[in-house]
Design a protein that fits this description.
Blueprint lengths: L14 E3 L9 E6 L9 H14 L8 E4 L3 H12 L4 E5 L5 H9 L3 E4 L7 H16 L13 H4 L2 H11 L4 E5 L4 H11 L6 E7 L34 E5 L1 H15 L5 H15 L6 E6 L24 E2 L10 E4 L7 E5 L7 H10 L3 E6 L14 E4 L5 H12 L4 E5 L6 H11 L6 H8 L1 H11 L6 E4 L5 H8 L3 E5 L9 E3 L2 H13 L13 E5 L5 E9 L2 E12 L7 E6 L5 H18 L4 E10 L2 E8 L7 H9 L3 H9 L13 E7 L5 E7 L1 H5 L4 E6 L6 E2 L10 E7 L2 H14 L1 E5 L3
Parallel strand pairs: 2-9, 3-4, 4-5, 6-7, 6-9, 7-8, 10-11, 12-13, 12-15, 13-14
Antiparallel strand pairs: 1-2, 8-11, 16-19, 17-18, 17-19, 20-21, 20-23, 21-22, 22-25, 23-24, 25-29, 26-28, 26-30, 27-29
Length: 744
């Protein structure tokens, strides 16, 4: 076949029938993507670079920067340098000499990071990449893990399979960035709706519910991060192979089929042969073979196993931790349903829905108003419209959404729906809180009574149901005081009051509102509390099997008085051991006082010279992106654990790393209309910064923060000491500009 350029030669790889031990009429094919000029990801590089040039995102002659230790690097080098772009590849010491030689021979600049950072080699490479993006004017980053052109590039692969084979019953592929198998299967499913999609991962990769093992030796598949390009809704079955098993399979592929390939292809081959031996007559199975074996001559092909090589996979429930070849079924059409009763609109709400899909569950969001969640469409969650204030309507909607499937659990990420969730969980016989406990979490006046009865330290307080009672309440608690609604969330309507007049006005404002922000009837009560002037912490607790475990303690900072909006966090807080023990025990006693026994909780405490004082008990996961800090610092994914707890799955609450993580919120310094948030790219390039996220769009009315809904985004940084984290956050925040114009 004639091609005008080398770039045109990418694709059109052969599908070769393999000789395997299988029942008669079972056909097994290998799609030899390794016969691209370099490897399978040549397709991705061609697609993303040509599309970026077409749209003008990549200017003529501008630098291209990518993070890769394997075939994506080669593809970007091939296409980028061929089209006249300087190419910079960020990699790590695991890069093999052959790939390094090829990259340098093509004229690339190769940047090898020296050490792992918070999330292993991946995060170390991304930090170096951010520096290059800052230092190279006009540089463009293909972002293979989140660029939608990555999976889109494999529509050509699907088209070739349909043209060559006509039909496919089972597709097997390795999963790393998620592009190849998800892109190919999504395109095939448009024509072959009964196609079975089998993913192949490695032991120690987080992609499919396993704990991260940074020392795993396989390359080309697996990950320590969750790429946006993985569509977890597409898979029917997942296999995990250990390093020994993958390397043994790779040598078997060369010996038995004469295909000299890499360990991704070897892993796919091992699964292919297993499926073929058990397939029904007439089944056609295709495996995608990504790359050649020349990169692995000194590693995979010289490796000798250190442990047993499983002859067949162990079948496990999805979510079970594995150490050797194992498989789990997660059929697309029959996944257990996880029901969410509404969600929080910021922070971790939408992330929880995506996490449910990653855990092999079918998330269903019961909601009165889907438009409240602008990011809902991208979560893969089914939204069911119902009156979430009506118990009968909620139960009917849950039954309808399940449509005969198992309801694995019921949960929420919103304070406002803890009691609703408890009622639905009980009616379905699923794990959940007692409705009384959920009610105590929601109503601060009731929680205060329970804490008082249990002797748990808390501020002096008075519950009022009339502004006329404020003067007497202030006389009891003293000035200054804090006035707050009994059912508030996100610091709404919480105010420090210096005198009786301001306390009276704030109470009147709270009691005048018949409904809260979610349209729920308010209890008609407010709290007038003693102001505890002491450092503020939140204790992140997790309850399971009758025990309350402290995951860690967060140091919190807030706006200047009279408001109490969180402006930043540090996790874990730098505390003496005695203070940490005091805070933990106080949180444990607070949970015991309200009968809290399942899942995550977030207890806000101020640490006075006389000891801890409980400010609030939140019977749900912390907001304000604190779970992301916990994950970055310890490796514990609290969202993942919450969903495991409510579905009765095994928990993994042991830290696998010891770092510090911090966050600062972006806010406006004056009132007006938001015109833009500048400097985010430069801030993202600050060493130690892991994420710069903006959540507000231009045109929105903004003001200095009075509640959590006034926040406009956040910056997260990770380091080995609190000082490192704070320094990175200070540097990043100094580069960011919240730009406003006068508004109505």
């Amino acid at each position: 076949m004639r091609h005008d350029t080398l770039v045109d030669a990418i694709g059109n790889t052969p599908a070769v029938r393999l000789r395997v031990d299988a029942p008669e009429d079972v056909e097994v094919y290998a799609k030899l993507e390794l016969l691209n000029p370099y490897a399978m990801k040549d397709r991705v590089a061609r697609r993303v670079i040509l599309e970026a040039r077409r749209t003008g995102v990549l200017r003529e002659g501008a630098p291209i920067v990518e993070s890769s230790s394997g075939t994506m690097a080669l593809g970007v080098a091939l296409v980028g340098t061929y089209l006249g772009h300087p190419v910079h590849i960020v990699t790590d010491p695991r890069i093999d000499p052959v790939t390094l030689a090829k990259l340098e021979a093509m004229g690339c600049s190769v940047h090898v990071v020296g050490a792992m950072t918070a999330q292993g080699w991946q995060s170390a490479r991304l930090e170096r990449l951010a520096e290059l993006m800052r230092d190279l004017p006009g540089a463009w980053w293909p972002q293979q893990y989140s660029n939608p052109e990555n999976p889109a590039a494999y529509r050509t692969l699907a088209a070739e399979l349909l043209e060559d084979l006509g039909t496919v019953n089972v597709l097997v592929g390795s999963v790393g960035s998620g592009g190849s198998l998800c892109g190919t299967s999504a395109a095939l499913l448009e024509h072959l709706p009964d196609l079975k999609v089998v993913g192949v991962d490695c032991v120690g990769s987080v992609l499919f519910g396993q704990p991260d093992v940074a020392t795993r030796r396989q390359s080309g598949l697996g990950n320590s991060l969750y790429p946006d390009n993985i569509d977890y809704r597409l898979f029917d079955e997942i296999h995990w192979l250990s390093d020994d098993e993958a390397f043994d399979a790779t040598r078997s592929l060369a010996r038995e089929q004469k295909i000299f390939a890499g360990n991704t292809s070897g892993s796919v081959y091992r699964v292919l042969t297993h499926l073929a031996s058990r397939a029904a007559p007439g089944t056609r199975i295709v495996g995608i073979m990504p790359d050649r074996g020349d990169r692995y001559t000194d590693t995979v092909y010289q490796h000798r196993p250190e442990g047993p090589i499983a002859a067949v996979p162990t079948e496990v429930l999805f979510g079970t931790t594995v150490r050797t070849w194992s498989c789990a079924a997660i059929p697309r059409g029959d996944r257990p349903v996880l029901v969410f009763v509404e969600s929080n609109t910021t922070g971790t709400g939408m992330l929880a829905l995506r996490t449910a899909t990653r855990l092999g569950l079918a998330p269903v969001l019961l909601t009165k108003d889907p438009t409240r969640y602008p990011e809902l469409e991208g979560t893969g969650c089914t939204a069911v419209l119902c009156d979430t204030e009506d118990e009968a309507a909620v139960r009917a909607a849950a039954d309808s959404a399940a449509a005969g499937r198992t309801v694995a659990g019921v949960t929420t990420t919103s304070d406002f729906y803890l009691a609703h969730t408890a009622v639905l969980a009980r009616s379905l016989g699923r794990p959940g809180h007692a409705s009384g406990t959920a009610g105590l979490c929601r109503d601060k006046s009731l929680a205060r009574a329970a804490l008082g009865a249990a002797g748990v330290p808390q501020p002096a307080h008075v519950v009022v149901d009339s502004a006329d009672a404020v003067a007497a309440a202030v006389a009891r608690v003293g000035l200054p005081c804090v006035v707050k609604p009994a059912d508030g969330s996100g610091s709404q309507d919480v105010r420090w009051c210096a005198d009786v007049a301001s306390a009276h006005a704030q109470t009147a404002q709270i009691l005048a509102a018949a409904e809260n922000i979610r349209g729920q009837a308010r209890p008609g009560r407010a709290l007038v509390e003693e102001f505890v002037d002491a450092p503020e912490y939140s204790v992140e607790m997790f309850c399971a099997d009758g025990e309350a475990l402290c995951v860690g303690i967060t140091r919190r900072t807030a706006t200047a008085l009279p408001y109490f909006v969180e402006t930043g966090h540090l996790f874990p807080a730098a505390l003496p051991g005695t203070a940490e023990a005091e805070l933990t025990e106080c949180a444990r006693q607070a949970l015991k006082a309200i009968g809290f026994e399942l899942g995550p909780s977030h207890i806000e405490i101020r640490l006075t010279p006389q000891g801890p004082v409980v400010i609030e008990i939140n019977g749900r996961l912390a907001g304000g992106m604190i779970p992301e800090l916990v994950r970055a610092a310890t490796g514990i994914d609290l969202l993942d654990q919450q969903l495991r707890a409510v579905t009765g799955r095994p928990l993994a609450l042991t830290a696998d790393r010891s770092r510090y993580a911090g966050l600062r919120f972006l806010t406006a310094t004056g009132a007006g209309l938001l015109t833009g948030i500048g400097g985010t790219a430069a801030a993202a390039g600050v060493p130690g910064v892991e994420a710069v996220v903006t959540t507000a769009v231009p045109g929105r009315t903004v003001r200095p923060p009075r509640d959590a809904y006034d926040r406009l985004g956040h910056v997260i940084a990770v380091g080995s000491t609190p000082h490192e984290v704070e320094t990175a956050l200070d540097a990043a925040m100094a580069l960011i500009r919240v730009e406003t114009a006068p508004g109505p």
